[in-house]
Amino acid sequence: MAAASSTLSFPVINMEKLQTEEKPAAMEVIRDACENWGFFELLNHGISHEQVMKQFASEIQKLSEKLLELLCENLGLEQGYLKQAFAGSNGPTFGTKVSAYPPCPRPDLVDGLRAHTDAGGIILLFQDDQVSGLQLLKDGEWVDVPPVRHAIVVNVGDQLEVITNGRYKSVMHRVLTRPDGNRMSIASFYNPGADAVIFPAPALVAAAADDEERAEAAYPRFVFEDYMNLYVRHKFEAKEPRFEAMKSAIATA
Ligand SMILES: O=C(O)CCC(=O)C(=O)O
Ligand SMILES: [Fe+2]
After folding, report:
1. Which protein residue has the closest C-alpha to ligand 1 atom 1?
2. Owning domain of residue 42
3. Is residue 98 a contact partner of residue 183, using CB atoms and an 8 Å limit?
4. How many domains does the chain have?
5. On the chain, which terminus has fewer CB atoms closer than 10 Å, C or N?
């Protein structure tokens, strides 16, 4: 091991050896690596990519569920209602997507991500804290979602619009490209389980009953997986025809 500097084998340190009588040899590899390579690789470091992702997912899931409880409180729904509505028989589904938007010389010609609403429940987004680009459609105008260091952007998905009978809106958003600067984002999607049956909360339909226009559920009842099957083909279109299509799917069933 002490001869590592005379060979061309890339320095690799097995961290488990630091706990054994082989520690001096391992220390020697680290010394040599630092003096002669400026690099080394660690094995048995106790951190697996999978473990880090699991922990990240579990923290994001906890935060999503905390947010759902706050929404229940605001909506006057019993605690746990939204979490339960998303549960299906196997609990909610959860996904994370890492995106990189490279600089584009002609932002006027190319969108980073075309306008869409998100299909699922609630979306938590870490966006680049330097490079902007995300915009949402508010009252007919595209509005920037400003990069704020350490902030998590929260976005209401189509399923929350349905469950709240339209009280909460899943809004169109898009990502613009920039002529300079690479933009990174990490989006985590907290979605219903595939077999979860999604429908407007009866308490919210009743609450809207004194409002003439919404005397009955304005949104369909469907199985989340069926909605997703439709969504994948119509993601970059308005959400209303999707809700309509789900209504007729029930009517013809
Ligand atoms: O990258 C972003 O900031 C947003 C991504 C997004 O809207 C999505 O993945 O649905
Ligand atoms: Fe989105």
Report:
1. 185
2. 4-252
3. no
4. 1
5. C
